Amino acid sequence: MAQHVTDFHGILLYRRDYAERDFLIKFFTLEFGKKIFLIRGAKKRGFKMTADILPFTVGSYVGDIPDQGLSYIRTARETTQFQGIGADIFKNAYATYIMSLVDIAFPDSQPLPDWYHRVYRALELIDEGQNPAIVTNVIEIQLMPAFGVAPQLQGCAICGRTDLPFDYSESYGGLLCQQHWSADPRRLHLGPRTIYYLRQFSILDLDRVHHIKVKPSTEHALRQLMDEIYASQIGVHPRSKRFLDQMQDWAPRLKTPPAHDEDD
Ligand SMILES: [Zn+2]
């Protein structure tokens, strides 16, 4: 098997115990896509790279990266940790969910420089204290095509009109203009703000986002919409999402009025 000793940039997606002294780590690398690394002796006292392989670390490394199979790190060049995420259970939960979605959405060993950049930026925004629920919504919406669901958000899925109020229809796979609402009795009855953000987020460049402010009722409606689409059309519900759901039950500050409060 060909070995490539090479520089790479990586976002640590997760790490797992492996044998008594070792870790398995999954990196989303800029150059090679997602790769699993065996870190031998990582749990031994005095291991040199302990700080370089903590959760929520990004950095540049040198490693052996074969086309298939396990990779190995030789040295870490420069690494940093998203400390804001590491220190806050809410940020942590959203960031973990984003990384698990990206892990499920794409096969390993496929270079995805654009997505590497997007995940990096999403983590950076969450780390800085921007609303993690909304950053997560942006990633969820933009990941839909990778899961084989590409909603029609440009105009009405039936007639293409863009000048009437919209609602969202799962059976038509996108927006319906008011004239065609009758075509789907099970349309989702979304408010105009939710529709607005759904459309905006699908094309949003996270690099250009510096401050996010969305009304709590809209945030709640977006969460419900994502849950509906991910449950019924995508069928992906990672353990990290179950944790997020539980967390929302514990946390009164996340409890928000129901979506139908949205009236403008
Ligand atoms: Zn229409």
Tags for this model:
264 residues; two-stranded antiparallel sheet; alpha+beta; de novo design (two linked rop proteins); OB fold (Dihydrolipoamide Acetyltransferase, E2P); 2 domains
Can you offer a commentary on this structure?
With 264 residues, the chain is an alpha+beta fold. The protein folds into two domains: 5-81, OB fold (Dihydrolipoamide Acetyltransferase, E2P); 86-261, Recombination protein O, C-terminal domain (de novo design (two linked rop proteins)), CATH 1.20.1440.120. Helix content is 35%, strand content 21%. The protein has seven helices and seven strands. The chain has helices at 83-87, 89-105, 113-128, 132-143, 192-203, 216-234, 239-250; strands at residues 5-18, 22-29, 33-39, 57-64, 72-81, 166-169, 174-177. The protein has a five-stranded antiparallel beta sheet with strand order 3-2-1-4-5. A hairpin with a 4-residue loop joins strand 6 and strand 7. The radius of gyration is 21 Å and the shape is elongated. Residues 255-264 have low confidence and may be disordered. The site of zinc ion has 8 residues, from strand 7.
Multimeric organization: single chain
User: How are the strands of the largest sheet arranged?
Assistant: 3-2-1-4-5
Helix content: 25-40%
The CATH architecture classification of the largest domain is: Up-down Bundle
Supply the number of helical segments: 7
Indicate the CATH class of the largest domain.
Mainly Alpha
**Biggest beta-sheet profile:** 5 strands, antiparallel
Poorly predicted runs are 255-264
Intertermini distance: 61 Å
* DSSP summary, beta strand count: 7
Please provide the ordered H/E string of secondary-structure elements: EEEEEHHHHEEHHH
* Count of domains: 2
Mean pLDDT: 92
Could you say which overall geometry the principal axes of the C-alpha atoms support? elongated
**Which percent range describes the beta-strand content?**
15-25%
The whole-angstrom Rg is 21 Å
CATH topology of the largest domain: de novo design (two linked rop proteins)
Attached small molecules: zinc ion
